[in-house]
Amino acid sequence: MAAGAATAGLLTMGLLAGAGNAAADEGDTHHQGGAVATLDGLKTYDSARLDLGGGKTQNIAAGLFEMNVEGSGRLQTYCIDIHNPTQNKAKYLETPWAGTSLGANENAGKILWILENSYPQIGDLAALGQKSGAEGLTAKTAAAGTQVAIWRFSDGAKVEARDAQAEKLADWLEAEAQNLKEPKTSLTLEPNAVSGKAGGKLGPVTVHTDAGQVSVAASADAAGAGVKVTDKSGNAVTSASDGTELYFDVPEGTADGSAALTVQATTEIPVGRAFASPSKSQTQILAGSSESTVTAEATANWATKGAIPSVTAEKNCAKDGVDVTASNQGDSPFTFELAGTEHTIGAGESKTVTVPVDEDATYDITVKGPNGFSERFEGVLDCKTQGTPGTETPGTDGDTPSSAPSPAGGSSDEATGGEGDLANTGSSNATPVIAGIAVALLAAGGAAMFFLRKKKAAAGE
């Protein structure tokens, strides 16, 4: 009976964990644009020692993660959120610094300098070692030293590489780092939602990109309604570059409706772009990119009369919330409810409302309007690193969450470097363990019941 009860409890925990991860993996609705990637694990790493305070330390893995880009491409990233775990196969979205802990970090630009002046951007390890005074660097020790230097600026962590040469590299990078400006986005559209009356051009939607050229295409709904994507003069547009203004040309008499346009490019994503997860998985920063597919989408909503809304949303870490901007290009007021408060946007007006969201909390915001209009925005507000060393809740051995290998990347034997005593990360990797224990306990419980029944039957004879 005890075994059966324990099994039931463990099975329930496993189901809840699975449901939580599935919900989190749905991701942000209306991503602002850029690369979308899936974590593939920590691949090139060595060991570091984190000072937890109170005389306690912890050995953790430090190095390069890899991600697979939706569409095509592969990314290499470092962690900028040392006290958070990674989640298996977590989805990541290219995100402005303002939507992460980097937005309020006065040393964010120094992290970019480190990325541009160390491994893997500097692939000649002998030259990097000579410049930094770190002799005999390998890929794994160079990655570890680079990660350690980044953590000192991203998290204010007291951390050092366990390899002497990796530690020399970390110290040199920390001492030499200079503040640089945030790199340009790979691809975004601003705004990514517009509205207006049929019979005119709705927009503009401005392209922001680091790519030389992007393709432009209207959705099937737009083409079916006779809506075209044009420039300001009304000329059809199929390609664009940074700064191009796009419009939805909606013919007069078109039935009330909505449509979308998509821009896409294959490019190397700029080093230093942040990647945040819609689930609770440690924030990353880009260290290297292959040619990768990046996309962005914008929508248009039109009608002949009444309120004609458009709504956009983005994280605002400075205000601890999500900025929801509603515009109304109709001829009557647009009224909606947000965070328990009713808001009215007059004809031709717009308004931004900041919805408060607790740190690390999920948000699910829906704004509804006339003619079936509905926009939904989901995600996690992850604007701060998880405290300072010594504030975590230690395990039996004083272990805390770290940047250890993600099980998504396979066993540590498949990665470059690493040690067997490193702390593991990712709450979702507990599910297979729970399931295994549950199966074992279920078998044990069944065997125990069989034995007791047999014994009882024997006693009855």
From TrEMBL:
Enumerate the spans annotated as Thioester domain: 77-178
Q: What Gene3D superfamilies does its record include?
A: 1.10.150.480
TM annotation in the entry: 433-452
What residue spans carry the Low complexity bias annotation?
385-413
Q: Which InterPro entries match?
A: PLipase_C_C, Thioester_dom, TQXA_dom
* Protein keywords: Membrane, Signal, Transmembrane, Transmembrane helix
Q: Which domain of life is it from?
A: Bacteria
- Leader sequence segment: 1-24
- Which parts of the sequence are annotated with region: Disordered? 383-429
Query: Locate the Bacterial phospholipase C C-terminal domain: which residues?
Result: 309-379
Q: What is this protein called?
A: Cys-Gln thioester bond-forming surface protein
Which source organism does the UniProt entry give? Streptomyces edwardsiae
